[in-house]
Amino acid sequence: MTKPQIVGFPGRLARYSRILGISVALAACGDSNQYAAPPPPKVTVATPAERPISHYFDATGNTAAVNSVDLIARVQGFVQAISYADGALVKKDTSLFTIEPEPYKLKVDAAKASVLSAQAALTQAQAEYQRQADLVGKQVSTQANYDKALAQRDSAQGDLQSAQANEQQAEINLGYTNVTAPFDGVVSARQVSIGQLVGASTPSTVLATIVQLNPIWVNFNASERDVQQVRAILASRGETTAALIGFPVEVGLQNEDGYPHQGKLDYVAPTVDPSTGTLAARAILENADRSLLPGYFVRVRIASRPRPMLLVPNVALGSDQGGAYVLVVNQQNVVEQRQVEAGQVVEDLRVIESGLGKDDRVVIGGIMRAIPGQKVDAEQRSLAAAH
Fold first, then answer.
1. Which of the listed residues 77, 168, 297, 365 has the most CB atoms within 10 Å of its CB?
2. What CATH number should be reported for the domain whose range is 56-66+217-303?
């Protein structure tokens, strides 16, 4: 008898073996491919630099002459001489115009003669008065004669004083015929000609204008906010705005680099202009080379006294709707976004007014890899080494 055969068993067994092998293989692969977190990104951090920094107040102003005067003909007469070249720089008391002096010299001579006559009359009246006083004392003359002599003496004394005043006035008018420079300055082009009658009209004839260029003023304004900040700083030091007088001021023209002209603050208005919300101030500058002319528009800068401030690289700052910020790595190496108040730029560093401590680690390298709330691998460097 033939033994029965189990049809298909070997094939099914082989198939089961292959499935079991695949399952074991998959199980083995699963053990070796478990998820591993990537290492934290590397960034470079540094603590802020600390330096003494001066804050600057910046404004736009304009130059103005300390003195500018129209030269007026104060007496009537013909212009006899013009003793300067138009636009010349002259010294104080330099003769500029001569108005014919002869008529006024004659008036001085006449006034002097009147003084001599009045002196003689007073001498005679004084002698008569003294004689009448002696006679009255001896009861030889009457009181009426004495009173008359006294009145004549007093009248003669008054006439002498009047004559002397007329002489002084004549001397003054004679002095007006020589028009001189009241201060060192540049004289404008003459407005009269030789032989022209001046001083006959009202108002009096303007002969020319003289402008003082050295020193020169610079007028500018400070906003109400700047004024309040400055006053708060002064109050913290126990000082008033009077302490600002004499404070250094730097000035530059629109086409100049920097602020090459140095001066001092010499005036601060006592009140804020309510129509503009600004406070007027003025500086005075030496201008011996006459590089500054009245009417220029200039840039004005005033530096405060230096005080320690924190600085970070300018590239470390970002900005969003909340304002300026820096990225800081805390003790757990987690990135934080810190809002700060940024100040002026010093070389390639930015002054941080507030919001940052001197021991904070600021991200200065790999900023794109620093995500707030995420850990990083922070490499500490100094700002000096980073630049």
1. 77
2. 2.40.30.170
